[in-house]
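Subject: Interface between my chains keeps coming out wrong

I've been trying for a while to get a sensible model of this assembly. When I model each chain on its own everything looks fine, but I need the whole thing in one frame so I can look at the contacts. Pasting all components below, labels as-is. Any help appreciated, I'm running out of ideas.
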Amino acid sequence: MKNKSFILIMILPTLILISFIILYPTISGVLLSFKNYSLFNFGNIKWIGFENYNEIFSDIFYIDVIWNTIKWIFFSVFFQLILGFILALLMKEPFKGRGIYAGLVFYPWAVSGFAIGLIWSWLLNGQFGVINDILMKFGIIKKSINFLSDPSIALYSVILVNIWYGIPFFAIMILAALQSIPNSLYEAAEIDGAGYFTKLIKITIPYIKPTLINTVLLRIIWVMNFPDIIYGMTRGGPAGSTEILSVKMINTVFYESNYSLAAAHGVIIVLILLIYTIMYLKLTSKKEFNI
Amino acid sequence: MKKFILLLVLVLSTLMVFSEEVITLNLIEAFSSPWRTPTLNKIIEMFETLNPGVKINVISPPYETAYQKINLMISTEQPLDIVEIGDWNLSTLASMGKLEDLTSYINSWSEKDDLIDGVLEAASIYNNKPYLLPHGIFVKTLFYRPDILEKYGINTFPKTMQEMYDMAKKLTESNKNQFGFDFRGKGYPTSFIDIVVTSFFDDIDPNNMYLTKSEKIIFEDPRAIEALNFYVSLYKDTAPKDSINWGWDEQVNSFVSGITPLLFQDPDTTGMLNEMIPGKYKTAPLPLGISGKTYPSFGFVGWGIPNYSKHKDLAWKFIKFVSSAEINGYWSKAYGALPILKSVYEYDSYFSSDIFKGWRDMFNSEHYQFTQYPLDNENWGKWNEFQEKTMQQVLLGKLSVEKCLKEWTDFWKDAGLGK
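Reply #2:
Try treating it as a single job with all components included. I did that and got this:
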């Protein structure tokens, strides 16, 4: 019993701190979503039940937002993983100038997502964008592509930038895992006559599998909650074609100044992520992913 | 002894300097920008020099979140003495009951009669009381590039919407990356759409742009169908397709580079254009619609005083200083907004140059009727995003003009407008 009290006393400061910085904002955010707290209601704030949620689910554009979010997460994470993996493999072996090369590869990670969005919105501009100019000069296209204003390609344009932005994260994580693989495994495989791809499939990937799974699953959470690039490039337009859940939430604050409705959007995002996290924890706790 | 007296004098004078009470006024601005904030700081320096013992602490939130910050700071009575208020958040702040009614201050102000007509009325949209004194006026006008138009044998500017469409179409050669009209698709395109749509009417309510004089919502009127179809043609036939995704930055850049030589914009655009293409642009009145009228909105931004401020008189002293003819002229010239005092237009030849012809002619013509948005309507905040998104869908062919107008009508009926 004494031991239990001692443990409780020791973790109390942490509990108090967590309550202040996580629990309080979360609870007040959930409570806010059941009120009518908006710019035009400062004098008449009251409890309105599920009205904000009703408004969200009766929005004819909401299904498009969810669909955009799924595409945004899937394509972004899939290509970030593949390209990050390739980059990590290329950087695994020491070579001259590796430091400079690594610096260039990791550069996007050092810049703010919003600034990246703004820069790319100019690069991809249909009238005076550098990308169109380069493609035309090389004869790849004859007419400017409206990367951000054509709704059929706008979402893929922002995804492309997000892939570019997220590759370094995967490269860093995977590179660290690759460097932990004992060389003796490869040496033994080489003695047995294994080639590059056999070593990749039989040694490299199984060895770093836990890192790959953890990184992908964590990255999905981050990408879902990452409106910066889209906000800098299109603000969710044209006609909502690049609007994902987190951008919708920001637009609700900036355009409508409706803090309660934005909180309701936030609660929905949290609920989705909560379900996802439970699945994630169950998945990662299985022994088959541990070596 | 002499040394002792000298030391005593030094110590006493130092004590006097440090014991003088310094009053700090907190000022928050709403439109911070690299073009404008340094000008505000220079004016503050002048005021502080003229008023020893007064210090002004400037809070400059990022432009995108400034209104939210101001509204929250005022609602929670955080220390503020001077607050910048725009027409779009005036009703919100005034309805909280946290703004000082400036009537008595303005009535005792010696330059009051020099204010241009309509400024005080426009600033008194809430309960007919002036809760702010505007420091700049915003009215959209037509900017054009004579150098580009001349290349196409055009030596004038369009006087009507139809002339503008014809001219813009003549200028459009998409294969040469040359277009006519500088379109705005995102970032509050509201006033841009509404200037075109209302120009098809001749009976707009001067107190509410979305109502006719018979209190009918304009979007359920057959003239709105014609107007919106015209707007769609303007985009499809004369503007870069990419401009559906353009805000102010892209618009101005396209105008500066000459890709789109016709532009509707506010006067604060002049500050940037004077730096980038001095002498290469002019302004003209907004083109008239088929009704023979055009209905620009009369935007304004000004300074107010929170009623819980402990230094209201000193805050007014600063507002009075900023609004004096000399400072207002300097401010408007650097910032680009239209001055609020008549005398500024007379004493400074800059305001009688070609750059300001568009506004001068509009102010002196009966064909232009200034109207107001329903800014105090609870649904106003939602409207901008809704109108932008639905309008973009129309431009992309995903929504018909008729369906869009029906949605706009329903929106405003739900908000309590119209008969």
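Reply #3:
Confirming on my end. DSSP finds twelve helices and no strands in chain A.
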